Amino acid sequence: MSKIYITAAALIASMILFSGCNGRQSFEPESTHSASSYISKHGRKAISVLRDGVTYDNGTYITRGGEGKIKIPEKFHFVAQSSSYVLAADNTGQIKILGRSSGKVIQEAKLDYPLISALIRGKNIYYISQDNVFGVYSMNAKKTTVSAKVGRAFAVDTRIANPISLGSLLIVPTLDGKLLVISPSNPRAARGMAIGSEYNMNNVIFLGKIGRTIIAATPRKLVSAAPGAMNKFEAPIADTVISGGNVYALTVDGRVVKLNSYLKVLAQKKFPYAQFAALSVSNGKVFALDRSGALIVMDANLKKSKIYDIGKVKSYSFAAGGRLYKDKEVVNLNSLSYE
Predict the structure, then answer these.
(1) Any idea what the Cα angle at residue 174 is, between residues 111 and 21, rounded to 5°?
(2) How far separated are the first and last CA of the chain, in Å rounded?
(3) Can you tell me the distance from the alpha carbon of 289 to that of 326, in angstroms, rounded to the nearest whole number?
(4) What is the DSSP code string of 134-198?
(5) d(Cα 98, Cα 108) in Å, to the nearest integer?
(6) By residue range, what is the domain housing residue 178?
(7) Which residues, at least 6 apart from 339, have a Cβ–Cβ distance to it below 8 Å?
(8) CATH code for the domain in which residue 11 is found
(9) What are the helix (H) ranges across the chain?
């Protein structure tokens, strides 16, 4: 059995891969503004930080939409949720399906490999597990009904994207740089779309959509895919967000970039030596966080900017519901201005 090594710190791994970390200079803005009045403590320690959720040591969790309403069982972490269910997993292959309102364990199972990413659709869970295995777990049948290895991958970036729905289809990102296009009525007849050819650090770290156009990012590039067309933006990617029909990206070389759905660059601004940790777009403002603690607030067209000092990122950062969670603190983004 081949092993997949998951990087311990995604952004640092990307920086080593593309820029080298020895002697790298740090971002030093000419001036910063205090944000202390917009920062509060939450006191929780993160035990799992995924692309779409953070789980804390007291069982609470957050998603891109904000705080979860139930608690995750001990030794498990949040993976995905639907309107009815929350999916939690541990590091051995165990999964628990919880009621999103009640928090009660509805069903539990043991997979052959630890769960990496998943989408809950109806009573089925479509997932990728370690060793790059695509599977379907049926809550009605209480078992895995589809399981297939979909390619080789030896080292992956921790910012692993969950599958998404696209109309009646599902788009499932694999760990070796492919997107599986799946019809839930016949998941065994999946079609694959390759967006990269490398074996290492090539998994999809962002997956979203603008209408019927798929937007995907690997640590090396952005890809826009629609029927009969594929566009690419080649750059080392630190983070990606879709907002207002546009794509915003942070690059490892210190750029904030705004692109349309065809990945044509509409605007960009460079911050020399920035080591970006998180990106958020909320209420017409763009927020880019440097690991030094410099939080850059820009207008949607990247013309105006103001930089706040919120303190160095020591362990993790995660943008959710107009807030930025950093270590044991939370920043109210909507109170900050670019003017």
Answers:
(1) 110
(2) 55
(3) 10
(4) EEEEETTTTEEEEEEE----SEE-S-PPPPEEETTEEEEE-TTSEEEEE-TT-GGG-EEEES---
(5) 9
(6) 5-335
(7) 304, 306
(8) 2.130.10.10
(9) 10-18
Burial of 157 (0-12, 13-18, 19+ CB in 10 A): buried
CB of 219 closer than 8 Å to CB of 213? no
pLDDT tens-place string over residues 82-102 = 999 999 999 999 999 999 999
The answer for 327, left when phi > 0, alpha when psi is -120 to 50, beta otherwise, is left
What distance in Å separates the CA atoms of residue 67 and residue 86, rounded to the nearest whole number? 13
Backbone angles phi, psi at 36, to 5 degrees: -60, -35
Whole-prediction pTM: 0.91
Residue 213: strand, helix, or coil: strand
- Two tokens at 216? 């995907």
- Contact in structure between 52 and 67 (CB atoms under 8 Å): no
Cα maximum dimension of the chain: 61
* C-alpha–C-alpha distance, residues 317 and 326, integer Å: 4
CB 221 within 8 A of CB 233: yes
Count up the domains in the chain and report the number.
Answer: 1
pLDDT tens-digit readout, 216-254: 999 999 999 998 899 999 999 999 999 999 999 999 999
Residue 117: other Cβ atoms inside 10 A: 25
